[in-house]
Automatic annotation (TrEMBL):
Taxonomic superkingdom: Bacteria
Protein's name in the database: Bifunctional NAD(P)H-hydrate repair enzyme
Signal peptide: none
Gene of this entry: nnrD
Described purpose of this protein according to its UniProt entry: Bifunctional enzyme that catalyzes the epimerization of the S- and R-forms of NAD(P)HX and the dehydration of the S-form of NAD(P)HX at the expense of ADP, which is converted to AMP. This allows the repair of both epimers of NAD(P)HX, a damaged form of NAD(P)H that is a result of enzymatic or heat-dependent hydration.
Entry cofactors: Mg(2+); K(+)
PANTHER family membership: ATP-DEPENDENT (S)-NAD(P)H-HYDRATE DEHYDRATASE, ATP-DEPENDENT (S)-NAD(P)H-HYDRATE DEHYDRATASE FAMILY MEMBER
Binding site for (6S)-NADPHX: 58-62, 130-136, 164, 264, 335, 394, 461
InterPro entries membership: Carbohydrate_kinase_pred_CS, CARKD, Nnr, Ribokinase-like, YjeF_N_dom, YjeF_N_dom_sf
Amino acid sequence: MNLVTAAEMRRLEQEAAALGVSAAELMQRAGREVADKLAALLEPAAGKRVIVLVGPGNNGGDGLVAARHLKTAGALTDIYLLSPRGSDDIVLREAVTAGLSPLEARYDVGFERLRAALEEADVVLDAVFGTGLGRSISGAPAAALALVEEARNRRPEMTVVALDLPSGLDADTGAIDPSAVRADFTITLGYAKRGFFLFPGAGYTGEILVADIGLPEGSGAGLNTEVLDEHLILDLLPDRPADAHKGTFGKVLVAAGSPEYAGAAVLACQAAGRAGAGLVTLAAGKSLYPVLASRLTETTHLILPETADGGPAPGAAELIAGRLKEFSAAVIGPGLGQSPSAAAFTRALLAALSRPENRASGFAAVLDADALNILSAESDWWLKVDFPAVLTPHPGEMARLAGLAVPRVQSDRIELARRCAGLWRQVVVLKGAHTVIASSDGRAALAPNANPALATAGTGDVLAGIIGGLLAQGLAPFDAARAGVYIHAMAAESVRAALGDCGAVASDLLGHIPRSFKALKEHDHAACH
Ligand SMILES: NC(=O)C1=CN([C@@H]2O[C@H](COP(=O)(O)OP(=O)(O)OC[C@H]3O[C@@H](n4cnc5c(N)ncnc54)[C@H](O)[C@@H]3O)[C@@H](O)[C@H]2O)[C@@H](O)CC1
Ligand SMILES: [K+]
């Protein structure tokens, strides 16, 4: 599903106008679609009490059209105008002609009539502000929204439905005005807005329903931000031919683990296998071998020479380099630590991978965790990664890689990831609530969910392993990253369903990875029959 900014939505509106679909016509379609979707939610609309809060702009205009259709559907509809609308306002006149009697806030002393209406309302339709919000909300709109908030807290049976977006939510950034009211549903027009997938706004939309307002065919062609969904991911997944052998699904080299963080290697290797790689080989230090081999039944081992403190000794990277051609993908970084020996090893390994003669054709790697921390200590580090890679930073790692503070990263997640992917010429997976996946060609995708079950040690190692497993099966880096993030999120949802959002640990995800692939494919199968 494509996502838009306010400016992109305005551009689409202008393009529609150039093709003969006027803004007035779009407003009529928008209002009718919103009323239809709301009526379907109310089942039936007849007899239900609906208050439509109407603002000064086109969002309010859509609300007036919706109010008219809701009345026709039998809802007991009140219109509450928060600002005067001109006497030449066609949609207001149409509402009055249809028998509605709008009440203006300026004539409602102390908001007494609004308070009384909120005591009985089944639904509040918030059509105060949409994509045109230009400053902080004050005056009558702020007071009315505060009353709605207060009523919904007191009367949980009252449903709040946002028209296009919750008033006060910034469509582009997800920033929230203090007056914004959390919606139970957002019926959004044409396309979902980016701010629906950026916090804090992501917590305000409730369930998102997209209303088709009949934008001309192909009008979304230039959009470059999407939210992942199962149809898109299914198209990306590799085939599993019946005559396959383990070579069909590729070999992953995992360079991970250190005495302090041995478990990271276990999680990354197991996740790569669970994501369908044919063979996983772990390159780790000699002293770790007995521990890790006892945990990793199916993994093969490339045993590295060690320094006295258990770090990779000089020569470890060369040992791997001599074997690189056997592998179609690598995962480098989980649990490596940042000791001087780990840093020297990582730099030497990345240099070896950057020499094309060392790599199998189609090779790509995931760079995660300590590999990113080690890289970010060097200026212009991206010039040293001369092979296709998926970088999987969390916000702290992203801040170090980009030379920014964490709040800057978090306040501009999509565009920052996109800019960095362009500059670094790699795929960037910026983890966090609604993980962002950005490609150097300007495309960006967002994970559809934010799951607190993922906020625990080791889940990043699992993600790196899944993406590595998908790279090994021949997916292009952007596809492997998108599919990996989605499968990881699905597995996390299954864990949450089974265990709740507290106390799940990263290894709980592993068994749910193949189940997630299975669920996706079965859903597709069911959809075809
Ligand atoms: N772009 C499109 O393709 C379409 C847009 N439509 C609707 O148009 C909306 C955008 O309409 P507008 O651009 O008129 O914007 P809005 O309706 O969001 O509000 C803008 C109006 O509110 C005022 N305003 C902004 N912030 C304010 C504040 N904090 N306090 C008081 N007044 C404030 C502005 O001066 C302007 O008059 C969309 O959200 C959607 O509902 C639809 O009609 C259909 C098609
Ligand atoms: K709104």
